[in-house]
């Protein structure tokens, strides 16, 4: 009875709910119409004029215009369109699984068990994986991967990372409280740069980065309105880092900013070089003398192919330089699940180890990390497997070792194949791919093509390559290069069969391009 009374009263006020809704809508519509009649149409708050200018300055070539064009061509082919090729081969990015690399079985088993603990009862999963998953889950709130962790990461995973670093660096001590889990290495790099960038005008933070560089660095510098300080790698010496070039870049930068940090990528992206121990010692001595903060991007530390090269961590070399250096040089090193032999890009797992940071600044770092709550726990679990893999005495070791060796062996073979085929093409010079996942060949572009392209000759080259062959690579200008030199970056991740096809198409296109623009036979 009460409900009927309420409904009757409501009906008297508003004969129809639907009608009331229409009236409200019509009233809003009438007001909008009146606004248009008055010539006062509401303007958008966020426009290109009001957009943060630092966002407009950001560029990221790895997913830039060439890649967008490749996506358009892919859709065109899927809809039945015709091109001189049947597929687009995306060699623009180091995405191993997208290129067909199979996951490491043990890693996926542990993450699966963490995600769905009911699988612990399944005989299909090895005990080696189960005890790791149980240990990780015990460190998670509610024993669930769906919980938040502490902002620096799950404690037992941080301890596993510290143990891994000590083993890798042959006994150099690592404190687990200096370990911070990150959402991929990129998240850690951005976080540390946020701490470092300050000042105005000539006191603005200068960030020294290698050229060529991974575009994350230039993008972050633009977004934070810091000052990019380029130091050029020596292409004629297999992209080695020259200490004299560091001094030149530093002294020139001091005229307009305050250089506070030097970034190193080792093994190199996009250049594929592996820095020698002597070179690392010189960089660390330079940082010590000039009071620079050191950021060492070591995500490709497992990707070393040249028999005469070896990965040396900056931390280990710093330790071996003696207490005066090891107790004072501020160093952050980064690692990731995305590269190496696992190629687990989608988990977005990573960590950073922070050395010699001022305790008060470290508290500010923890505060900054707490704003983003925590990295994804699935990525943290994946990172734990990388630093705590099966050991020789464990049942799963044989399969794990076979899979890891197969991935790294294939990459070494493809690194050599890429170098050999590209260097056999007139007008292309490719340094040895000592490590990482990319080749960065130098290409000769005839003057006629340079004139036609005006601003970006290598962009013209890569766009033509895409449109005529379906091969998607990234222009060297997106990574930085010396004036009047031109390059492109390509990944070596495709299968041997597909890589042979890719390189053959690049060879044929380049010769055709030279003939078109220079008339050379």
TrEMBL record:
Reactions it catalyzes: L-alanine + 2-oxoglutarate = pyruvate + L-glutamate
Cofactor: pyridoxal 5'-phosphate
Gene3D superfamilies given in the database record: 1.10.287.1970, Aspartate Aminotransferase, domain 1 (3.90.1150.10), Type I PLP-dependent aspartate aminotransferase-like (Major domain) (3.40.640.10)
Gene Ontology cellular component list: cytoplasm
Domain Aminotransferase class I/classII large: 143-503
Enzymatic class: transferase
InterPro entries for this protein: ALAT1/2-like, Aminotransferase_I/II_large, PyrdxlP-dep_Trfase, PyrdxlP-dep_Trfase_major, PyrdxlP-dep_Trfase_small
Protein name: alanine transaminase
Organism: Sinocyclocheilus grahami (Dianchi golden-line fish)
């Amino acid at each position: 009875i009460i409900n009927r009374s309420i409904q009757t009263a409501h009906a008297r006020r508003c004969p129809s709910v639907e009608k009331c809704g229409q009236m409200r809508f019509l009233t809003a519509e009438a007001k909008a119409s009146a606004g248009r009649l008055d010539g006062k149409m509401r303007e958008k708050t966020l426009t290109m004029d009001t957009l943060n200018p630092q966002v407009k300055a950001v560029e990221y070539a790895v997913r830039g215009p060439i890649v967008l064009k490749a996506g358009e061509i892919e859709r065109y082919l899927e809809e039945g369109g015709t091109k001189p090729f049947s597929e687009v081969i995306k060699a623009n990015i180091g995405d191993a699984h997208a290129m067909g690399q199979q996951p490491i079985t043990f890693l996926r088993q542990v993450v699966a068990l963490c995600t769905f603990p009911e699988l612990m009862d399944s005989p299909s999963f090895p005990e080696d994986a189960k005890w790791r998953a149980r240990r990780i889950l015990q460190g998670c709130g509610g024993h669930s991967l769906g919980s938040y962790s502490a902002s620096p990461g799950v404690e037992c995973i941080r301890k596993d990372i510290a143990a891994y670093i000590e083993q890798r660096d042959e006994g150099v001590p690592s404190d687990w409280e200096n370990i911070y889990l990150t959402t991929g290495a990129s998240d850690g790099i951005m976080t540390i740069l946020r701490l470092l960038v300050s000042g105005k005008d000539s006191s603005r933070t200068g960030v020294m980065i290698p050229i060529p560089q991974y575009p994350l660095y230039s993008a972050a510098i633009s977004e934070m309105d810091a000052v990019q300080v380029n130091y050029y790698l020596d292409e004629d010496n297999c992209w080695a880092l020259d200490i004299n070039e560091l001094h030149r870049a530093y002294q020139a930068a001091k005229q307009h900013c305050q250089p506070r940090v030097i970034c190193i990528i080792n093994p190199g992206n996009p250049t594929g070089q592996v820095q020698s121990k002597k070179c690392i010692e010189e960089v660390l001595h330079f940082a010590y003398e000039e009071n620079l903060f050191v950021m060492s991007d070591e995500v490709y530390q497992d990707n070393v192919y040249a028999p005469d090269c070896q990965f040396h961590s900056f931390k280990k070399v710093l330790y071996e330089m003696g207490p005066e250096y090891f107790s004072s040089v501020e160093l952050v090193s980064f690692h990731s699940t995305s590269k190496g032999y696992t190629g687990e890009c989608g988990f977005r797992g990573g960590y950073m180890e922070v050395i010699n940071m001022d305790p008060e600044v470290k508290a500010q770092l923890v505060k900054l990390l707490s704003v983003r709550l925590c990295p994804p726990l699935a990525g943290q679990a994946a990172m734990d497997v990388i630093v705590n893999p099966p050991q020789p005495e464990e049942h799963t070791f044989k399969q794990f070792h076979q899979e890891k060796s197969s991935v790294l062996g294939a990459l070494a073979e493809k690194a050599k194949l890429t170098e050999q085929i590209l260097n056999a093409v007139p007008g292309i010079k490719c340094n040895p791919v000592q490590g990482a996942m990319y080749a960065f060949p130098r290409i000769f572009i005839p003057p006629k093509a340079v004139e036609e392209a005006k601003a970006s000759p290598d962009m013209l080259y890569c766009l033509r390559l895409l449109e005529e062959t379906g091969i998607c690579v990234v222009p060297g200008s997106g990574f930085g290069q010396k004036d009047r030199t031109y390059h492109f970056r390509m990944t070596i991740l495709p299968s041997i069969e597909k890589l042979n096809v890719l390189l053959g198409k690049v060879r044929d296109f380049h010769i055709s391009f030279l003939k078109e623009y220079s008339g050379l036979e």
